[in-house]
Design a protein that fits this description.
Blueprint: H1 5-31, H2 43-52, H3 64-71
Length: about 70
């Protein structure tokens, strides 16, 4: 699958984009601790994280901090 340069380049580009977004999330959380999760994640990503990581206690207002914890 990754025997030629083009597929390998595509995978590296995708990993760079994902790692850059993950790198920026804690910085955004530090500058605005009570920020909405939409500051760094879209609706599909928050919905997926809600389904994958179940919370024992439902917070009244979900913040970026809760989603960063789920990603970690």
């Amino acid at each position: 699958m990754l025997r030629t340069a083009q597929p390998l380049t595509n995978v590296i580009v995708i990993f760079c984009i994902i790692s850059w977004r993950i790198f920026l999330m804690p910085k955004r959380n530090h500058s605005a601790p009570a920020a909405e999760p939409t500051l760094a994640l879209d609706k599909t990503e928050t919905g997926l994280l809600d389904r994958l990581v179940q919370e024992k206690i439902q917070p009244q207002r979900k913040t970026l901090r809760e989603y960063l914890t789920k990603i970690a």
